[in-house]
Design goal:
Strand content: 15-25%
CATH class of the largest domain: Alpha Beta
Radius of gyration: 31 Å
Number of strands: 29
Largest sheet: 7 strands, parallel
Shape: globular
Distance between the termini: 44 Å
Length: about 750
């Protein structure tokens, strides 16, 4: 492709359909122009260097051109050579996925046939080349144990435990004792099933729930399984998976958080072994490509590959795998907002997309939750989904005792120790004395929510967003949780020079530190976004807690979701008010869900657990409903409000966000767009308004909310909106405005 090097970015929704390693990427290659007249006088020194190399080589990459020219920004130089008809540029398509290979070793044919010669060479090596003898004896030991003798012993197995043995191994190959070959190997771990599904003994309530699910599945009706925490939903999932596998079909098991896959994958692989694959963003590109290929190979004409995946456990991106014979989709914790994809495009809700996927494959779908989304429960109540309930905890485990600590009163009486009420500390000490474990939930990460000057009340803010910077003590910096901007902690107030800066509020990092100061002998772990960035971080933290190497686990909402620990007797919710007071029509529902979910982590076999909720408003209705474990009461209360104010499930929402680097053009554009929308939807528009955070990444934001009637033709309404937005963007003054449309925002 000749011409100037341009970079164009499109927000394509299909970009997410393949794992990155399987996408063809283009690489620009530079070649001499066939009509180059070799007039070097028109070239500068750097251009001449590039041409000189091209006269010796057929082509070079952009990176190589940069090195040859000794110039980092080489694109202008290449464009100059293009204009002088000296070079051409074309795009070479490059496949990024490279299968992993490993070297394997077999005994050479000569020595396989002649045992006497083999013994002679072994005696010789023992006397003259002891290191080679050591490697050879290790090889013979492993060779008798390999499953595939024709393949041999892998290099990693052969040299395991041997020090600096590469040269000795190479000598054995050179001498003709061993044959070396390279084979493709998997980057994924190997697992074997250790237990039969028939070993699972379902309780009577579980059997009744399973029968109810079968009834609805016989009519291809989506099912909502409303089972309280610790009621044994996973055992039902495993039974259903087993039934589907016996028919030769595939299963997709969705979870909202990567953290949950650690425990669930261990349980599934215990029963199903290697047919279970895991797919989420913390896997590397090559690993995701392998899983993708294993799913794709399940129903090939020649039959499934021996290492194909019939069951996939994953986060929302697992929806996009190439299933060809899907029989069952399970959406666990279906209420969770993490199922919503925000950035990048396409913006979709994995639960809704899963229902569509199941319908396309004529597969059954099961939604499971202890605290279903109001919309899902509404659909079940009105016959769109089948409703199956599981109201008893597995093994007659008692629901936890829930207490409320009035921290407003405790603060007034000066009874608080840092952010811990007397009742919470007393319960924590009792649990630790009994060798039991504790979970502490605070839905804010970082150390403190902000720093504030004691003299002039200056608060450091992000340069790119209208938010205060969060203090992270371990890294000794202030960080924006929206754009990632960070700066060192100022030694004094940047505005007035005052050396005293107060720390206001608290996050999980501060909880961890203050707990360690109060109880230096206990072992504490923290699970939040800051501590789980690496691939195996979730697994390490959860395993340490499961195996009781940790006494107290503190964290954000990651600790609330479906984790199952036998030895947890106490859960502390450190600040319920943050959730309850959030300005959103779903805050009541979400507060109930989060507190009920984290409360469900408390309770051991044969012993009732305890939950302590710290609040300045202990009589708030949502706290009362959590104490009573009254989901139905929460639903009835909230559904009445939703009906009154025409919010989902009585309407469908479309949110339009407008973004611009300057506030005035944004205000004008938003006002104009609302005027256009009101012509088509006169009584259904809210806004435009600035959101809670009015500027993110140097772009000011205004939002418009469209409430579409539930009985309206959604496709026709969306088409009208698309047409209006297209007309809006044709206006010259609005070309710099970025529009983001989100259907069914959460």
């Amino acid at each position: 492709m000749a011409g100037s090097l341009l970079s164009v970015h499109h927000g394509r929704g299909d970009e997410c359909l393949l794992p990155p390693a399987l996408k063809l990427s283009s690489e620009s290659r530079i070649v001499l122009h066939p009509e180059f007249d070799k007039d070097y006088s028109k070239l500068n020194e750097r251009e001449y260097r590039i041409i000189s190399v091209l006269e010796q080589r057929s082509e070079i990459s952009i990176g190589e051109a940069s090195q040859i020219a000794g110039q980092l920004k080489v694109i202008p130089l290449i464009n100059s050579l293009i204009e002088k008809n000296a070079v051409q540029v074309f795009e070479e398509m490059v496949k990024r996925y490279i299968p992993k290979t490993e070297k394997y070793y077999r005994l050479s044919a000569t020595y396989q046939k002649d045992e006497q010669a083999l013994n002679a060479i072994l005696d010789y090596l023992e006397k003259r080349a002891p290191r080679q003898s050591e490697v050879m004896h290790a090889f013979l030991h492993h060779y008798t144990e390999v499953n595939e003798p024709e393949k041999g012993v892998s290099k990693s197995v052969l040299l395991n435990g041997l020090q600096q043995a590469d040269a000795a191994l190479r000598s054995l190959v050179d001498k003709g004792l061993l044959d070396e070959a390279e084979f493709k190997v998997s980057r994924l771990e190997v697992f074997e099933a250790r237990q039969a599904v028939s070993d699972i003994q379902l309780t009577v309530p579980q059997q009744e729930a399973l029968a109810g699910i079968h009834h609805f599945f016989s009519n291809q009706t989506p099912v909502l399984l409303h089972g309280i925490t610790s009621s044994g939903k996973t055992e039902i999932y495993i039974r259903l998976i087993d039934e589907v596998l016996k028919t030769g079909k595939q299963v997709l098991y969705l979870l909202p958080e990567i953290a949950l896959t650690t425990q669930i994958i261990n349980r599934l692989r215990k029963y199903f072994g290697d047919v279970v694959g895991v797919y989420h963003s913390r896997y590397g590109e090559a690993e995701r490509a392998e899983v993708w290929n294993r799913v794709a190979s399940w129903c090939e004409p020649k039959g499934p590959d021996p290492v194909s995946h019939q069951v996939i456990l994953g986060a929302r991106s697992a929806l996009l795998l190439p299933f060809s014979k899907l029989g069952l989709v399970i959406v666990d914790e279906e209420h969770d907002s993490s199922y919503k994809q925000y950035e990048p495009n396409p913006r979709y809700h994995a639960r809704d997309a899963a229902i569509y996927l199941a319908r396309r494959h004529q597969a059954n779908i099961l939604l499971g939750s202890a605290t279903p989304a109001l919309e899902s429960y509404f659909n079940a109540k009105h016959g769109k989904y089948g409703l199956v309930k599981l109201n008893k905890r597995f093994g007659d485990l008692l629901l936890p005792e829930i207490q409320v600590a009035n921290i407003r009163e405790a603060t007034r009486l000066k009874q608080m120790k840092s952010h811990f009420s007397p009742s919470l500390l007393k319960a924590l000490e009792q649990a630790l004395e009994n060798k039991e474990q504790v979970i502490l939930f605070q839905n804010r990460r970082g150390f403190s929510l902000r720093m504030e000057c004691t003299a002039c009340q200056f608060i450091p803010e992000c340069r790119h967003c209208d938010v205060t910077l969060i203090y992270h003590k371990r890294e000794k910096h202030l960080r924006c949780h929206y754009c990632g901007y960070s700066e060192p902690v100022p030694p004094r107030c940047p505005k007035c020079g005052n050396p005293d800066m107060n720390l206001i509020g608290f996050g999980t990092e501060k909880v961890e530190e203050e707990l360690a100061l109060l109880y230096p002998e206990i072992r504490i772990a923290r699970m939040d976004l800051d501590t789980t960035r690496s691939k195996h971080a979730h697994h390490r933290i959860i395993t340490d807690f499961e195996e009781r190497r940790v006494d107290v686990l503190t964290g954000t909402q990651m600790v609330t979701k479906g984790l199952d620990f036998d030895n947890v007797s106490l859960v502390g919710i450190l600040n319920a008010d943050n959730m309850i007071s959030f300005p959103d029509f779903r805050s009541f529902e979400r507060s109930y869900q989060m507190m009920a979910q984290v409360s469900g982590r408390a309770g051991r076999k044969f012993k009732q657990g305890k939950v302590i909720i710290q609040s300045r408003n202990p009589k708030h209705p949502v706290i009362g409903l959590v104490i009573e474990n009254d989901y139905e009461g929460m639903y009835e209360l909230q559904i009445a409000d939703r009906r009154k104010f025409n919010y989902p499930p009585y309407s469908r929402l479309v949110k339009i966000s407008l973004k611009h680097k300057e506030p005035e053009p944004l205000n004008q554009a938003a006002a104009e767009l609302v005027r256009m929308l009101r012509k088509e939807f006169p009584k259904q528009i809210l806004g435009p308004e600035y959101p809670m955070i009015p500027r993110i990444r140097n772009h000011y934001i205004k939002e418009i909310l469209i409430k579409l009637r539930r009985d309206a033709n959604l496709a026709a309404s969306k088409e009208k909106i698309k047409t209006l937005l297209s007309e809006f963007l044709k206006t010259t003054t609005h070309k710099q405005v970025r529009l983001v449309v989100d259907v069914d925002p959460v």
